[in-house]
Every structure is written in structure tokens, then in C-alpha cells.
UniProtKB/TrEMBL annotation:
Domain DDE: 71-209
Entry protein name: Integrase core domain protein
Function: Involved in the transposition of the insertion sequence.
Regions annotated as coiled coil: none
One annotated GO molecular function: DNA binding
Originating organism: Ruegeria denitrificans
Signal peptide from the UniProt entry: none
Amino acid sequence: MISLKGCHFPKDAVLYAVYFYLWYTVSYRDLEEIMAERGVRVDHATLNRWVVKYSPIVVANAQSKKRPTQSSWRMDETYIRVRGKWMYLYRAADKAGNTLDFMLSERQNRPAATKFFAKALSSNGIPNKIVIDKSGANAAGIREVNRMLKRFDCSAKIQTVWSKCLNNLIELDHRFIKRRVRHMCGFKSFRSARATLDGIEVANMVRKKQFTSDTTSGFRMFAEIAG
């Protein structure tokens, strides 16, 4: 549950600002004006701190509250510029297009892929197969995860499928992230990039209706996830 101890603004106002920035194509200065029109006077630097501080908490809650996903995965990575350098956003979705997990990495190699797969398995269980493109690093990551499963006496083995066609689903899903990032002024630090991108991913999951909720409001669902 999000604690706003020491914050001088109502919880709904803070969550609304965070959700609005993650969902819509606005800058922090635009959001400052939008909030002012709604009677909340807050500067753009504070809005940035709210997004970086509270997005990771919402993400942690989201993984435990999302609907069950399917056991056939699609995995790919896309490029994100941070501090003027290209970094890599690892992403996975099931065959129905539901977001499984995501991880920003400074490197694109076997250890990074292994770390991502281990993270995804911890929150989604063990899939039957993972569809990837021709990336050798990603294939090596799956092999390493299978070796880890074997060491823990787990009989399950993840099948690796190389298919550009089947992986189009996750590649097309990158568009929501790229469209949102394209209009930002750029990330100044790895920490802020990771927190913001994680928050955008959860907003995307809200759009896909991946959470059990009676509400039809995207913001109310986001607030419920935040707790």
C-alpha cells in the first residue's frame, strides 16, 4: 500500500497526477498546468518525484493483482535512450497479448536475459514455451534458466521457439511504450527511466484490463492497484 506520509497533497491527487503522466502524452510542465486547472498547485519537479517514487510501488502491487496469464510466452527487447546512451527494455507477453513482465537493462547479453527470465518466472510461473527472435543471448538465457530449474529438481523444461512471425505480437506491443517515450524530453538517470517505464507498463496493463475489478475507470483501477 502506498504511504503518503509527509506529503501535503491528498492521495487521490497524487495518484491522479502519476496516472495521468503515465497514460497520456504530456510533459511535466503540461501536467503542472492541468493540475492547476483542477485546483492543485504543484510544480513540475514535484510531479517528477511523485512518478519516480510511487510508480515502483504500484508495479510491485500490480504483479500480485493481475489476472492469470497463459503458458505460451513471446519475448523481445526494445531500445530506450537514457543519458544519451541506448539501453534495453526487456518485455514479455503471453500469446493473448497480456503483459507478463518487463525489465530495463544497461546491457543486452546472456546475464541480462537470464535475469529477466528469472524475474518473469518468479511472478508468472513456468511457461511451456517462450517464442523469441534469432537472439543468441535470449536463447542462452532460456538454457541457463532450464539448468537452474534442473538444479532445483524441477522436472519442467521450457521449450525455445525461434519465430519472427509469432514474435510480431510482442514487437507490435512495443508501440505503446515507444509512443509514450517519444514525446518525453529524455531520461536523465537509469533510476528515473526504470521507474517511469515500469509505471507506463502498468498503465498499459490497465488499458488491457488485466486486473480483476468492477470499475470501468482506468484511474480508479490504477488507484485500486496502488492500494
